[in-house]
Amino acid sequence: PINDSLSLTLDQSDLRAVTSASASLAFNRDRLWLNGSEEVDAASSKRFRACVDGVRALATEKIDPDTKEIIVSKDDWKKMHVYIASYNTFPTAAGLASSAAGYAALVAALVELFGAKESYPGEFTAIARQGSGSACRSLYGGFVAWRAGGEKSDWSDSIAEQVADETHWKEVRAVICVVSDAKKETSSTAGMSTSVATSELLAFRAKEVVSKRMKLIEEAIKAKDFESFGKVTMMDSNQFHATCLDTYPPIFYMNDVSRSIVQLIHRYNDWAGEIRAAYTFDAGPNAVLYTLDKHVIELLALVLKYYPCESKDLMGDYVNNKDMVTKALAFELDSSLLLALEKSCSVRDIGDVKMVYCTRGGPGPQALDASSEVFDFKVE
Q1: What is the distance between the alpha carbons of residues 52 and 57, in angstroms, rounded to a whole number?
Q2: Distance CA 49, CA 207 (A)
Q3: How much of the chain, in percent, has pLDDT values that exceed 90?
Q4: How far apart are CA 2 and CA 195, in angstroms?
Q5: In DSSP terms, which residues pair with 281 in a beta bridge?
Q6: What DSSP letter does each residue of 220-250 carry, written as one string?
Q7: Which end of the chain is more exposed for a tag (fewer CB within 10 A), N or C?
Q8: What band does 169 get if pLDDT is binned at 50, 70 and 90?
Q9: Which residues pair with 287 in a beta bridge?
Q10: Where are the alpha helices (DSSP H) in the chain?
């Protein structure tokens, strides 16, 4: 990476990647299934190989807890192939960090399978980032920073560090507006590679801006200062997308609906006289809106008014949290707010937002019992 970054790991009861991993001498090759379909070339993928081989190299002997006999030796692990199956409970490759969740779950599952042990703190995150950069942050809960590193020749210092766990700032909420659930035209990795090669603004941002903003936002998180947190979040999102426009040829991740959400949030904050909500857009058109628990129903009511569902009968499919939907539909938005919004915001067409997720910060990967496995692996 060319600079540090920070993210919030979300509650897995709302959005998650679920991954099962198995290893056997009977398997004749490594295989991967994603959302029910086999990824034919997965075994030769550099990203997949980096994660599988990286974690396998840290494998320990599997010991029978009762007899204390060695069931699988380190040498045995090296001879085995793996079967991996994974699925997401949210759109894949649409700018909702599905690759981050997927590769974090992959590494976590492999760590459990191989009984892997780190040779230095953060080594698993260094492996995960080779699958997807953002995956390194998803191995921890709460607010997590990815330190760019680069002082060590092997980049072993490019690791994730937890800034604050998921219990630190429980009042923070996220309302995610899915503007598009289709696969992106330009992937995050391809887009960033082009930006690094062609955008002078990106180079300036990495050298002069990001480190200052990282300091500010980490301080805001620790102090639970939403005003500062929200301002830095929005400014940094705006500048990231400015670097996309500065890329040659330019990259357009946001669309008209995305920009209308930006305008709505600024007008809402102007009316409130404070930052009550903050937007951020990753490499895609979907908006993640941060707010505090005391304002989340008001914000959701605002979203439902300006980005309506086709009918109240379908609201259960439109928003993931039924309890919050009920409260938001019953919430009466202030007439002065609606008057202030009339001047620059309009109700969008049905379908402009495909779905809304209401969630919060959550823990890192969780080991699930056998009832949650994706499917039974069979030798073919």
Answers
A1: 9
A2: 32
A3: 87
A4: 11
A5: 287
A6: HHHHT-HHHHHHHHHHHHHHHHHHHHHSSS-
A7: C
A8: very high
A9: 177, 281
A10: 46-56, 74-79, 98-114, 123-128, 188-198, 200-204, 210-223, 226-246, 256-272, 296-306, 315-318, 322-330, 335-342
